[in-house]
Design a protein that fits this description.
Elements (H helix, E strand, L loop, with lengths): L1 H9 L3 H6 L1 H20 L9 H10 L4 H8 L3 H4 L8 H14 L3 H7 L3 H32 L1 E2 L2 E2 L6 H28 L4 H12 L1 H14 L4 H23 L1 E7 L2 E4 L2 E4 L2 E7 L6 H20 L5 H9 L5 H22 L2 H10 L11 H36 L7 H39 L1
Antiparallel strand pairs: 1-2, 3-6, 4-5
Helix pairs in contact: 3-10, 3-11, 7-9, 8-9, 9-10, 10-11, 11-19, 13-19, 14-16, 16-18, 17-18
């Protein structure tokens, strides 16, 4: 069966794609939804002076604002209705995943299947509204305090501005959450991931043009630009290799006699990804590390002297910054892996269905074996994440390479692309299977 599937996948061509009408409709729907998202990133928040805001954000380009502006496709820098993007929903989803390992009630809902999943999704939406409201109010208050040589960022500060800003930003995030769910249901790929992907990719041309401009003016040497391009291509291939890598643990099922027939006895495998945590560790580590730098930047040298010392030690590319960055990536890799994969639950499920790992006793021994294997895989996965994110950090700090060549952005772009391509291939494969079934039925009728 597997060889037949591989043969069908290898024989996919343009003609097969042209016949898959449902797939084309899904792709067009996805493209249309992403276009709507990109149009929304240019609708400004009411009461904002864009010139003053641009000056302020240019000064904070290296802080957490610069990173979040990259994820939002420039919407935060332009302070548009999608300034918060989909990040509050992602934060709420991560919090609910963490709560499932702490709260017995949510853990019980998670085991109830589809009905429990719907309730958890509803809780996630409510939490998204709460997080977005707090962040939107913080942004509105922060905007009123932002000033530059050109004046204040807010034209008419006050209660009315804060109210309209909160309502607009909450509405924008909730619309993006709904749009992402529609893409997942009616389009192709994961809608939330594609929205972040579109935000990063949309600004790639300007980042590349800016890098080439630095080369033209002599700020960057031509050799360095060539090395940067080759390094980016090499990192992309390395990410693809690691993201596809998995450890397959053989699962054996015993034979059972039902009447005069013997059933079962087949073997399967449990795939464990090398990088189970995905891109969560770099995002969390970057956000936490860049937060104090952003606060120090807003103080504009008016704070105490120790703030300047902290800023110097935690500057991008500094040894202390890189050491803490690597430590936090490794910590979050282990922490998030422990949240999303529970060896005890997996061992119990295998035991209930009669499955076992050859040479390992069911139950506690299986759980300990899975935990040992997963810990070793996480060590390699954490080292991979640290290596991918550390090299671009050095280039960003030493040679002022744009954020878009950072490890986190490349990880997101590559992983989302791989996931979307695999879903397209699955749709094409299902379409070819349907065609074969229809042909066999027609031949049977004749």
């Amino acid at each position: 069966m597997a060889s037949a599937a591989e043969q069908l996948a290898s024989n996919m061509n343009f003609s097969a794609f042209s016949k898959a009408k449902e797939l084309k409709q899904r792709i067009w729907f996805t493209l249309g939804a992403l276009i709507v998202y990109r149009l929304g990133t240019y609708i400004p928040l009411p009461g904002i002076d864009p010139i003053v805001l641009q000056d302020i954000f240019s000064q904070q380009a290296g802080g957490i604002l610069g990173m979040f502006d990259m994820f939002s496709g420039g919407a935060l820098g332009r302070m548009t209705i999608f300034a918060l993007n989909i990040m509050p929903y992602i934060s709420a989803s991560i919090i609910m995943q963490l709560m499932s390992s702490v709260s017995p009630k949510i853990a019980a809902l998670k085991k109830e299947g589809e009905s429990g999943r719907k309730i958890i999704n509803q809780y996630t939406r409510y939490l998204t509204v709460a997080i977005t409201t707090m962040q939107a109010y913080g942004i509105s208050v922060g905007l009123e305090g932002m000033t530059s040589s050109s004046g204040s960022a807010v034209i008419d500060p006050g209660v009315f501005f804060r109210f309209t800003a909160v309502v607009t930003l909450v509405g924008g995030t909730m619309f993006l959450m709904w749009l992402g769910e529609q893409i997942t249901a009616r389009g192709i790929g994961n809608g939330i991931s594609l929205i972040i992907f579109a935000g990063i990719v949309a600004n790639l041309p300007s980042a590349i043009a800016g890098t080439l401009e630095l080369g033209r003016t002599g700020a960057l040497s031509s050799l360095l630009i060539v090395i940067l391009i080759l390094m980016s291509v090499g990192v992309i291939f390395f990410i693809i290799f690691i993201e596809r890598a998995q450890r397959r643990i053989i699962i054996q099922y015993p034979k059972r006699q039902q009447g005069n027939k013997m059933s079962g006895g087949e073997s399967s495998h449990l795939p464990l990804k090398l990088n189970t945590a995905g891109v969560i560790p770099p995002i969390f580590a970057s956000s936490i590390l860049l937060m104090p730098m952003t606060i120090i930047g807003f103080s504009a040298g008016t704070g105490p002297e120790w703030l300047s010392t902290v800023a110097a030690l935690l500057g991008r590319g500094q040894p202390l910054y890189l050491a803490i960055y690597v430590f936090m990536i490794v910590f979050f890799a282990f922490f998030y892996t422990a949240v999303v994969f529970n060896p005890e639950d997996t061992a119990d499920n295998l035991k209930k269905h009669g499955g076992f790992i050859p040479g390992i006793r069911p139950g506690t021994n299986t759980s300990q074996y899975l935990d040992k294997v997963l810990s070793r895989l996480t060590v390699v996965g954490a080292a991979y994440l640290a290596a991918v994110c550390l090299l671009p950090e050095i280039l960003i700090s030493r040679f002022s390479v744009p954020f878009y060549f950072g490890g986190t952005s490349l990880l997101i772009v590559v992983t989302v692309t791989l996931d979307t391509v695999s879903q397209v291939q699955s749709h094409l494969l299902a379409h070819q299977y349907e065609g074969l079934i229809k042909k066999s039925k027609l031949k049977g009728r004749r």
